[in-house]
Amino acid sequence: MRITLMGPPGVGKGTQADRLKGHLEVPHVSTGDLLRDAVKQGTPMGRKARAFVESGELVPDELMGELIAERLARPDAAEGFILDGFPRTVEQVAILERVLDRLGVKLDRAVALTAIEAEIVRRLTGRRICPTDGTVYHLESHPPKSPGTCDQCGSALVQRADDNEEVIRKRLEVYSRQTLPVMEAYRQRGTLLEVDASGAPDEVFEKLKTGIEG
């Protein structure tokens, strides 16, 4: 199965992508990781992208399309993939279609994880991270045993700078502005699946599986 996965910050996209990867036995292709790896390894496309990354500019859509095409052509993606982080604009929808056409395959589902803004704000403002080992906690749903301290190593937990309410609401506004047209494009193609991501991760995953396999 070939899927592109969309969702606003804090909706649990990474968690569900990892579960879906294991369930479908296909690779999770994060475009952010893909770009960083290409730059780090100094591949021809990575060298092209480095100039944009180092100057703080967005990597051009066509170059991202080339990176994605190379990744999806690898043997492990022959039976499917979960694409995360692309497309983010209507123009990128067309680029992805051209990439898949060249590979002779079609997208099965464009999955959009959704949640009301208040729920996303609650999730992100309550998030705390261990700066030493990266363990993620939540003040309500997954608190540390000792307040403010990592269970694993005892380090003081921190809150990410962008996990404050004002920044979160701005990020959600940008996401909605960019992504709603993408969702509409896939709705018109008959491939959009919207999944309510409220609730516990297990509940969300069951809804996700039912929607994909139904």
Task: Throw out a few tags for this protein.
single chain, 214 residues, Rossmann fold, 7 strands, 14% strand, globular
Number of DSSP E strands: 7
* CATH superfamily (homologous) name of the domain at 2-115 and 179-213: P-loop containing nucleotide triphosphate hydrolases
Supply the helix-strand structural class: alpha/beta
CATH topology of the domain at 2-115 and 179-213: Rossmann fold
The ordered H/E elements are EHEHHHEHEHEEHEH
TL;DR?
With 214 residues, this protein is an alpha/beta fold.
What does this protein structure show overall?
Helix content is 50%, strand content 14%. The chain has a domain at 2-115 and 179-213: 3-Layer(aba) Sandwich (Rossmann fold), CATH 3.40.50. It has helices at 13-24, 31-41, 44-55, 61-72, 90-103, 117-125, 165-189, 201-213, and strands at residues 2-6, 28-30, 81-84, 109-114, 127-129, 136-138, 192-196. The strands form two sheets. It has a five-stranded parallel sheet with strand order 2-3-1-4-7, sandwiched between helices. Strands 5-6 form a two-stranded antiparallel ribbon. The chain is α/β, with parallel strands linked by helices and 214 residues long. It is globular, with a radius of gyration of 18 Å. Strand 5 and strand 6 form a beta hairpin.
